[in-house]
Amino acid sequence: MDVDPVSSQEPAAETEEKWRAIAAEKKQKQLDSIPKEWLITPPPEDRINVLDVPSECGLLTSREMEITNEVDVAALLAKLASGEWSSVEVTTAFYKRAVIAHQVVNCLTEIFVERALARAAELDEYLKTNGKPIGPLHGLPISLKDQFTMKGLETVMGWVSWIGKVSESDCVLVELLYQCGAVPFVRTNVPQTLFWGETHNSVFGRTLNPHNRNLTPGGSSGGEGALIAMRGSPLGVGTDIGGSVRIPAAFCNIYSLRPSYERLPYQGARNTGEGQESISSTIGPMSNSLSGIKVFVKAILDMKPWLKDPLVPKMPWNEPAYQLVEHGNGVGLCFGFMVDDGLFKPQPPLYRAMEMTKKALIAAGHTVIEWEPKKHLEIFINCNSIYFADDGENLRRECEATDEPLLQTMHPEELLVELDDASMPYERHVVRDLGHLTTYELWELHKEKRQLRKEYLDHWMGTVERTGTGRPVDAIICPAAPYPAPLHGHNRNAWYTTIWNALDYTVAVLPVTYVDPKLDVQHPPHKFRNHEDQWIYESYDPSSYEGCPIGLQVVGQRQEEEAVIAIAEIVERALKASPS
Amino acid sequence: MDVDPVSSQEPAAETEEKWRAIAAEKKQKQLDSIPKEWLITPPPEDRINVLDVPSECGLLTSREMEITNEVDVAALLAKLASGEWSSVEVTTAFYKRAVIAHQVVNCLTEIFVERALARAAELDEYLKTNGKPIGPLHGLPISLKDQFTMKGLETVMGWVSWIGKVSESDCVLVELLYQCGAVPFVRTNVPQTLFWGETHNSVFGRTLNPHNRNLTPGGSSGGEGALIAMRGSPLGVGTDIGGSVRIPAAFCNIYSLRPSYERLPYQGARNTGEGQESISSTIGPMSNSLSGIKVFVKAILDMKPWLKDPLVPKMPWNEPAYQLVEHGNGVGLCFGFMVDDGLFKPQPPLYRAMEMTKKALIAAGHTVIEWEPKKHLEIFINCNSIYFADDGENLRRECEATDEPLLQTMHPEELLVELDDASMPYERHVVRDLGHLTTYELWELHKEKRQLRKEYLDHWMGTVERTGTGRPVDAIICPAAPYPAPLHGHNRNAWYTTIWNALDYTVAVLPVTYVDPKLDVQHPPHKFRNHEDQWIYESYDPSSYEGCPIGLQVVGQRQEEEAVIAIAEIVERALKASPS
Question: Which part of the chain is the Amidase domain (chains A, B) (predicted)?
C-alpha cells in the first residue's frame, strides 16, 4: 500500500532530492500534528477492509462510537442544539475517528486539533450563555477538501510548490461555515492537479478505499470520500469539475451533490486552472446521509452567499422546489434510465444496480423510460478540449518552481498504459497534446459548447412526448462510472460524470448495492466501440471487487439542487422499501 | 447627413467595388421593401430636430397619432387585449411611423410589412374567436435589433458578408415573443462589429439622432434608440456588452434596462465574438416608458426561458423583489451618487442632471451619499483586454470574406484622431494592439476579473456603515456617458456604462433633462487626468447640444432586475414631483 510516496522511492538526483525533501518535511509535520495518544497499532498491510478499525482499535469510547455512528446530520445537529451532545465531545469524537481513518487510508492533509477544539468550546460557551445555537450548523465538525483556505493554515492541494504558503484569510465558504456555527476540523487529500478520479500526490501520498484498500476511493475529493466512509466526518465539502464529489461517493458508499456552476461560493478557495470559466468546478457536500447534503445546501444558501461571492446567483433555498411542485409533488415521477452511454459499456454490477433501482421505483409508483444519450462523444471532445485548452500551462507552472514532476498516471508503479489508437477518444494523460489554444480557438469551442447544451436541453424537453406525466422526465438515473471502484491507477474513465459538468446539470449520488461475484457475472462480449470500452470489458474481475459498493447518479436539470435532493430521497426510500 | 455610405464614396478599386455593390444592392432591396405610399417628402437636410416629422408629414391619421403617442405600454396592451384597438391597426400605425422615422434618421434594417400585418391579423382573429388575448404581449408590435434571427429573414448585423444568409429558425427570444402574442415588426440598425457607442455600418449606413441629426443616437442599439425616440415602436429589444442599450437610451431620451448576464435568452441570436463568455452581452428592452421595460421583462421571464436557453438562470419574475422587500419596501432609500468616476470628468449638463435628481430624491424622503469609485481604471483595463483578447480575429474574419474594411472610426470623414499618449487608457480603435492572447493568458485575466468583482462587491456591502438605513446603498446613480449625445464620430468613451458590464450589475437608464446652454456653462479647467479627460473638457460646446436630452443610470446589484425597475420608477416619480 503506497501510502507515502517519499519512503518508497529510489535515491534521486539533486533537484529531485530537493522537492522530495520539502514534501517529506511537510509529511513529517503532518504526522507531528497528530496527538500521540491517538496513534494506533496499524492493522496488517494486507488487511483489505478497514471500516471496522475504529470500533476495534479501542481508542473510541462507546459514547464516541455512538456519536460518530449517527449518520443523520439533522439528528446530530438537534442534539448539538439542545446541548445533549456538546460540540467539544462531538468534535473530539469525529477528530479521533478521522485520525484513526487517516492511519489506515491516508485521507487527511491539514490536522489542527487544538484550533478546532477551541472553536468547539466557544460554541459550547455560546449555547450555555445564550440558550440557543449560534446558527444552523451549530457545533458540527465539517471536513474540507484541501482547497478551502483557512486563515493561518497552508493550502497545499497536492503541490510541493504550495508548501509553506500560509493563507491570510478564510475563503468565503469557510466564512459562511463559521457564521453557521460549524467547526471546520480537518482538511482532506486530493490528487495532484485535481484532474484525476483517484487521490494521490507527491506531498501526502495516496488515499485508499476503506472498503478495500487495494481499490481507489476515487477522486479528486477522495480524501473526503474515504474519511466519510470511515465515519471520520459527518459532513464534508469537496469540489467537482468532472465527477470529483460523485466518483468518491459512488466508490465509497456515501452521498454527494454536484450543484450547478457557482450555486455555492467558490470565492477565495484555491483551484487548478483558476480562471478557467468555461466549465466551472463546483462545490459539493459529501455525507453519510441525504440529510447531511440537504442541511449543508440549505444552511449555505440561507446565508445569502451572493453577498460575499460575486459569481453566486441570487437564488435562495427554494422550498417549493424541494417540495417538488414542478415535479408533480413527487408523486408518479418518470425517470430516464441510461445504463450505457453508448461509448463505454459498464461492467455487470452496474447493470444490477440499475435494475434494482428500476424495480424499486416502479414498485413505488413511478415510471421509467429509456434515456437516449445524445452526442455524448461530441460533448466529451468539446469539454476535454476546453479543460486542457492551455495545454497544461497552469499545471506545468506549479511544477516548475520545485521541479516536482507532473504525474502522468495514478498507477502505483507509474506505469503509463499506452492508448494510442486514434479512434480512442480518451487517454489517461492529464495533459493532452492538443497544443495551446488561442483565445479565438477557445471562443469557437464555446460556441460549439453552447450549441451542444441547447441540443441536449431540447432533447430532455422532448421526452414530454414519452413520459405520460405531461412533463419531461423528472430525473435521469445512470452509473457514476462504468465500473465499481477499480484498482489504484485504473480509474481512467470519468465520462459518466463529466457529461453532466459539461451540461451543468445538478446531480446527486447515492449508494445502491455492493458487488456480488455470484450475481455479477461477466457479460458475453459485445462489439467493442473503442479500446477503452474493450479495456473496461476485459478488466472485469469480480473477485477483486469483493465488498465494493456501487452508487448511482440522480441527474436533474440545471439549478435544480433542491429538487434533485428531494428526488434522491424518493429513490432512496424506494430502494429501502424494495424486497431486493 | 451621411445616411448612405454607398452613394457618397469615391470610385473604388475592383475588390472594393464588389463589396460596395453587394451592400448597395441590399440597401436598394430595403428601399423596395417600403410601401410606396409610405414614402414622404424628406425635410431639408439641415433640419436638425425631426421628432415632429411624423405629425407634420400627413401620413398618419389622428387615430394613428393617438395610438403611437401612447407611451404607457401596459395601457396599450390593455386596449389591445380588450379589442378597443386591433393589432392590425396598432401594427400599421407603428409601422408607418417607423418607416417615416427611417426616412429621416435611417434607423431600420429589415422591413417586412406584409408578414407583420398577417401576424397581427391572426392575433385579431384569435381574440375575436377566443374572447381573450393569446399572451401577455397580445398584438403588440416589437422592434428588434439586427441580431435577433427570424426564420426566413436575413440577419445582416452590419456585415457585408452576412447579406443573403437567410435564417432557418427563430432565435429563442423571437420564439418567446410569438408565444407572448407579440408582433415582431422591424429590425433596427447597428454599428459594424457592435463595438461602438454609435450606429454606422457599411451596409445600412449611419443612424442619426432625431433630437438633433448632427448628433449620434449612440450605439450599438442606436437604431432602436432613434426609432423609439421617434415613437416608431412602443417597445424594442437591444443588446448591451458595454452600454449598448444604455447609451442610446440616454442620448435619445428613452428608457432601457441592462439585465445581468443571461437573465434574458440570447440563444440563437447572432452576435460579435460569439463564444466570448467572459463578459457576456445581455439582452435589454428599450421603450418610451418604464412600463414598457417592466412588461417585457416580466413577460419573458413568465415564459420560463431557461427551458429553451441552457444559459438562462432558473429565476422567475420575482414580485417581492419588485415590491422592494429587500430595500425597505421602497421607503427611505439611500442612493450612492457618482457624478465623476475619477477618470473622465463629465461635461456640465451631467452635473446639473445629477443635482436635479439628488434634490428630487431628497425631497421624496430618500437619502444620498457619495459613491466612491473603486479601481475603475484597473477594471477597465481588465475588461478591455478581455473584449479584444482575440486581437479582433473574429472581426477580421467577417471582413475577409468580402474585403469589406474594418472600420477604425465612426467619424463621417473617417478621420482617425490619434491618441497615442501611453498614459491614456482609452483609444478609439476597435482593435487594440494587445496581440492575440493564449488561453492561459485569458484565464489569468479571468482570475484578475474575479478578484476585482469581489473587491467591488465588498466595497458596495461596506456602505452599510454610511447609509443610515441598515442596508448598503440601494442603488447607484451616475451618468451614462461623460457628455450628452456627441457629434457623429465623437462618442469615444463608454466607460460610465462598461464598468457595470464588467461587474455584471443591473442598470436602468431614464431621461432626466435637456441641455440648456444658459444653465450648463463650462466648468473652470481642472487638472486633466489623461488626454481623454482633457478632450472631454475641451470639446464642450453647449450650442452644439441644443435640445439634446440627458439620461442617467440607476445601478443595482447583480440579478436585481425587478428591484432596479422599481427603483427607477421611484426616481422617475421623484423627478416628476420635483419643482426643478
Answer: 89-564
